[in-house]
Amino acid sequence: MRVAFSACLLGDPVRYDGGAKPTPEVLELARRVEAVRFCPECAAGLPVPRPPAERVGGRVVCSDGIDVTEAFARGAQASADRIVRSGVSLVVLKAKSPSCGLNVIYDGTYSGKLVSGRGVLAERLEKEGICMVCEDTVKACKPSVEHPVAIVLGTGLGHLKNLVHPVRRMDYQDIEGFPLDARPIADHSFEATVGTIDEVPVVVYPGRIHLYQGYSAAEITSLVRHAQHLGCRDIVFACATGAVAGQAHTGLGILTDQINLTGMNPLTEGEGKRGIETPFVHMNDAYSPYLRTIARGVADDLGIAVEEGVYAGTLGPCFETPAEVAALRMLGVSYVGMSTVCEVIMAKALGMHVLGLTLAANEAGATATSHESVLAAAGQHAEDFERLVRGVLRLL
Ligand code: SF4
Question: In this structure, are 228 and 358 located in the same domain?
Fold first, then answer.
């Protein structure tokens, strides 16, 4: 996987004061990918050291009053051209900079005040559709013993639990809010494992309950609240789905967004609302663009066939009618299943970073669909699924 980095984050002394801003988590990521480094201000031919600059309206002005708008535009264009030519799929930018900043930048008063906005390079790259993050995202997604990665597994995917080097096991019955009468279906198991996969701290939940079993949205999301309580910031949801013909094929998929067709929402219920700052949760980027891009890059590197698409969650338990499948196709849905959407809403409400992976075991609406056929399809893709998850964990 090829990733471009603001050079100062990798320790290059290119900042205005002649220094660098090396960030351990970013350095670690750079060591594990094919790293491309850039500095737009150096590409513009600006000296090091140089007076600091900030964006003022549409212009860039140095602290000594010199207007450097043209130079910044030249450097940003040269760096953007290089990044695009390099074929990178992810760009890690230095936060707040007038060139590289993303989302917030200094306001032009040299008082340390921040305003929403982008650096000149980030503006250029936005048009290219390349995933951009700043170092804060890389840091926030970095797993540790305090912040393990939660992995919730669906039908046919529970075998991943065998990869865990266990430290502790927990019966779901001891998880607050999990229904005491729930019994696992098919290959699910109701024992979470805290441990490591390839030395990355994880908590694996090898089974879940569903709305169609009669449980509430608050109950089915109790595992998510539990994971967050344990300190998990990243959460991987893996689910079995049907592929909507014309939109996706059977096999592995990365979820890009979701449509909640269950008619339920955990944030409307007492237990589901507990600990939530506000139920009015923004659902933009519900599936983390950073984690999705990492998953895509891992799949490409390892030669794993993976598609991407929107997931629609239905109440179930019956499968979709031909008319429903046609409607889902018109809505732009690639995968349809009976889980995940409420869990993703809960994870977003708790500020977690979500990666959604699916095994499309059959075509949506296929008449021969059964738990057995899902398990058989899962068996065919088990090795690729494991390689994909391990590859993602290695890069976090
Ligand atoms: S222009 Fe970007 S890479 Fe260069 S020093 Fe500033 S933030 Fe770092």
Answer: yes
Which domain does 268 fall in, by range? 149-395
Q: What is the pLDDT of residue 296?
A: 97
Structure tokens at 110: 């040299």
Is the domain of 101 the same as that of 233? Answer: no
Task: Report residues of the chain scoring pLDDT below 50.
Answer: none
One domain, residues 223 and 289: yes
Our answer on whether the CB atom of 14 is closer than 6 Å to any ligand 1 atom is yes
pLDDT, mean over the chain? 93
Q: What confidence score (pLDDT) does residue 263 get?
A: 96
Euclidean distance between CA atoms 172 and 309, whole angstroms: 31
Element (H, E) at 239: strand 234-243
Q: Which atom of ligand 1 is nearest to the CA of 16?
A: 5
Rounded to an integer, what distance in angstroms lies between the CA atom of residue 97 and that of residue 99?
5
Residue 274 CA to ligand 1 centre (angstroms): 42
162 and 62 assigned to the same domain: no
15 lines ligand 1 (CB under 6 A): yes
Q: Is the C-beta atom of 324 inside 6 A of ligand 1?
A: no
For atom 8 of ligand 1, the residue with the nearest CA is 8
Q: Residues 22-41: pLDDT tens digits?
A: 999 999 999 999 999 999 99
Q: How far does the centroid of ligand 1 lie from the alpha carbon of residue 135, in Å? A: 12
Q: Is the beta carbon of 105 within 6 A of some atom in ligand 1?
A: no
Query: E strands within 20-112?
Result: 34-38, 53-56, 59-62, 90-93, 104-106
Give pLDDT tens digits for 38-61: 999 999 999 999 999 999 888 999
Residues 170 and 107 in one domain: no
Same domain, 229 and 132: no
For the chain, how many structural domains are there in total? 2
**Rounded Cα distance, 306 and 359, in Å:** 10
Q: How far, CA to CA in Å, does 113 sit from each of 15, 96, 103, 109, 196?
A: 19, 10, 14, 7, 41
